[in-house]
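PROTEIN DESIGN WORKSHEET
SECTION A - STRUCTURE
LENGTH: 406
TOKENS:
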């Protein structure tokens, strides 16, 4: 993790992030500035355009750490900007927006055109705006809106600023880099390369105890089961039984001193992954709390994950009822990392926990009833039902939002 220091919309901000974190993700996930939209995530569509040191920048392909100490202005920071206010009115007047998804990036780029082009032709405007794509309007209203603002400002005697006050060369934000001494710039001497060996499970387990690691995404959840707190706490000491309640999870062998090797399979619609990994489990009988620290890798997508689950077992609100509080943090990298920012992973985790609780109730009831053999439990997801449930949830949220706006 590295410390990222920026000045965003006039306020100094600082946060611990991974070096691979893009500026758009930093703004949306750390600062909740969701006016910066993510579209193609390849720097093509322009929906993520914002200003870095006054220069329009594709934030989806710009590393946040590459902009250390830079002045970042998002669409939220342009609320009181004179040119932006005129563009908003012109876009409304000329029907320059429909669904609105491209509009934040479109307005930022249009503002730059108004600021630096004195008397552009329609073709000049279209070329200047060609890095911002719109699937709705056909661009006619957008071009007219920009033409109208330019004509109005020039008519009021407000001239364009040559090059938009751009005085720096190089990537956006690079003008804030500190000087590097010759000694620091000199390449370090390295030893001859050695063959890379697979990390032994024991060594990997030791690396899990690295206290400097911080999860990228965290959330909390609680559930209750209708069984005494002592029965639930004792059940959690049986790692194999707990794993059996988790859909898609299986152990590669018997746990040794709180260390276990295993795998978990996840399949939701077109998303399929099988993470092979390790975990360390610790428990505190005095406080009835525990932690599970794990790491795994999916060979098919070359994606890796690392997670930390903390749990606390407490008496419930009624007799013979137990409440379990969970704190879940994880980091996902590789091809599947794109799904972690959308909230899909959290939805999937919530539904995994729901199935886990159902299986836990079944197993505890089976034990308390003196049953023999394995009880019938849910071993995997109904992926189709999960996707339908997610779609219905999002539709309900959208409907509630629309009702609040009316």
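SECTION B - SEQUENCE
RESIDUE ASSIGNMENT:
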């Amino acid at each position: 993790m590295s410390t990222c220091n920026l000045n965003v919309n006039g306020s100094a901000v600082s946060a611990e992030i991974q070096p691979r974190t893009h500026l758009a993700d930093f703004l949306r996930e750390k600062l909740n500035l969701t006016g910066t939209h993510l579209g193609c995530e390849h720097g093509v569509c322009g929906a993520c355009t914002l200003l870095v040191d006054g220069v329009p920048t594709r934030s989806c392909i710009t590393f946040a750490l590459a902009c250390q100490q830079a002045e970042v202005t998002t669409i939220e920071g342009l609320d009181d900007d004179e040119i932006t206010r005129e563009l908003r009115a012109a876009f409304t007047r000329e029907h320059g927006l429909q669904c609105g998804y491209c509009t934040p990036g479109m307005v930022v780029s249009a503002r730059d055109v108004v600021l630096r082009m004195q008397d552009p032709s329609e073709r000049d405007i279209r070329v200047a705006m060609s890095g911002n794509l719109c699937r709705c309007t056909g661009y006619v209203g957008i071009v007219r809106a920009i033409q109208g603002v330019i004509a109005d400002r020039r008519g009021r005697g407000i001239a364009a600023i040559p090059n938009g006050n751009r005085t720096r060369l190089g990537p956006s934000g690079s003008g804030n880099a500190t000087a590097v001494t010759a000694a620091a710039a000199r390449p370090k001497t390295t030893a001859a390369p050695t063959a890379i060996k697979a990390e032994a499970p024991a060594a990997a387990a030791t690396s899990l105890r690295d206290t400097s690691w911080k999860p990228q995404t965290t959330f909390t959840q609680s559930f209750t089961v209708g069984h005494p707190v002592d029965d639930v706490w004792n059940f959690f000491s049986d790692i194999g039984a707990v794993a059996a309640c988790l859909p898609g999870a299986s152990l590669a062998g018997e746990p040794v001193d709180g260390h276990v090797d295993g795998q978990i399979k996840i399949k939701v619609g077109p998303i399929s992954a099988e993470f092979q990994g390790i975990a360390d489990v610790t428990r505190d009988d005095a406080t009835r709390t525990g932690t599970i620290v794990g790491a795994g890798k999916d060979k098919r997508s070359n994606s890796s994950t690392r997670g930390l689950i903390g749990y606390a077992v407490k008496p419930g609100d009624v007799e013979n009822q137990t409440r379990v509080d969970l704190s879940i943090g994880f980091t996902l990298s590789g091809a599947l990392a794109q799904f972690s920012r959308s909230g899909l992973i959290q939805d999937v985790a919530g539904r995994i926990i729901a199935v886990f609780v159902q299986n836990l109730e079944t197993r505890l009831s089976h034990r308390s009833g003196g049953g023999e053999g394995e009880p019938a439990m849910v071993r995997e997801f109904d992926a189709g039902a999960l996707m339908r449930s997610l779609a219905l949830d999002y539709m309900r949220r959208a409907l509630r939002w629309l009702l609040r706006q009316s």
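SECTION C - NOTES
The longest strand covers residues 271-284.
The domain at 201-405 is CATH 3.30.530.20 (Alpha-D-Glucose-1,6-Bisphosphate; Chain A, domain 4).
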